[in-house]
Specification:
By secondary structure, the protein is of the alpha+beta class. Helices cover 43% and strands 23% of the residues. It contains three helices and three strands, in the order E-E-E-H-H-H. It has helices spanning 37-45, 50-62, 65-74; strands at residues 6-10, 14-19, 22-27. Strands 1-2-3 form a three-stranded antiparallel sheet, with helices on one face. Strand 2 (14-19) and strand 3 (22-27) form a beta hairpin. Helix 2 (50-62) packs across helix 3 (65-74).
Length: 75
């Protein structure tokens, strides 16, 4: 059976993505946020979808990145 992935933004506010059997749901912020290359690579290696990476980077700036990553890894 083929694993399907998708990425969708609803009303420019909510992003939902499915990759490798996991569903990522976050607020969607379109901005010119520049994520440092090392972090982009880290998120990519962890299988974090592109639209969710901005959310995760913002969580890092607020001190919640590790909590979010722990939830992703344990599921």
């Amino acid at each position: 059976m083929e694993e399907k992935s998708f990425s969708q933004v609803f009303r420019h506010k909510i992003a939902i993505e499915k990759i490798k059997g996991k569903i990522f749901l976050s607020t969607y912020t379109y901005s010119l946020v520049i994520i440092p290359k090392k972090l982009r690579e880290k998120y990519r290696c962890l299988g974090i979808p592109k639209k969710f990476r901005i959310f995760l980077f913002q969580a890092r700036n607020l001190g919640f990145e590790q909590r979010v990553l722990d939830k992703i890894i344990e599921s």
